[in-house]
């Protein structure tokens, strides 16, 4: 039976995933380690899939990766991360080498990582924003993968889950470090992305009609730049020290100060002009960023 390109296949459990891809039952119901070359792609598999658990995959055939508006080819492969509920396409290559860790959120319960894992923005990156690793970095990551694999295969004892958890957290911390290196490595490309981001943001705040619809969201700007929202924020934070939302708020303050200092419009009129339904919301945001109310700023400026 051929796959239905419009159908979305949802995997609720690790066991269901293993069965679909011709793998033996997982050693543990909430975490599993898979070698990609052992996976068999069924013909009936839908074009799009969604998991109820985290996926961390190292693939040697990631191929093209996107930075800003440019694509670069990587023969060495890289790491791809997927969070629960995130839709992704089925694998393009039938025989890919690499590793796959499936991690159910319930496995994290009672550990600090259950909350901290949401802070790793790369779980929301798109596939073409994969982490590319050097040979030395690959060796480090492979050593962690192998420890997780061996631990899951060995006899379970009181320390088993603690050991696996510590290695998963180590893997995520290494990934954060390597992504920061990647932002710097591609600084020239990301500088162009930052330049375009600044132009899009400037254009938005200079358009009265757009401005009256409210401030742009992080997702709006990411869509304009053809990158994921998480990638944009992490890249900006890494290279400018501020995330996307902070850049938006800074530009909002600049615009508000300009209007306050060059016009006689009331605070309410300025608030409506800048897309705020309630003047109090405008005043609250302005004061949180400047430690002054709009009127206090106007009086001090004059």
TrEMBL record:
Residues 195-300 form the HTH araC/xylS-type domain. One of its GO terms (molecular function) is sequence-specific DNA binding. The keyword DNA-binding applies. SMART domains: HTH_ARAC. The keyword Transcription regulation applies. It comes from the Bacteria. Gene3D superfamilies: Homeodomain-like. Keywords: DNA-binding, Transcription, Transcription regulation. This is AraC family transcriptional regulator. It comes from Chryseobacterium indoltheticum.
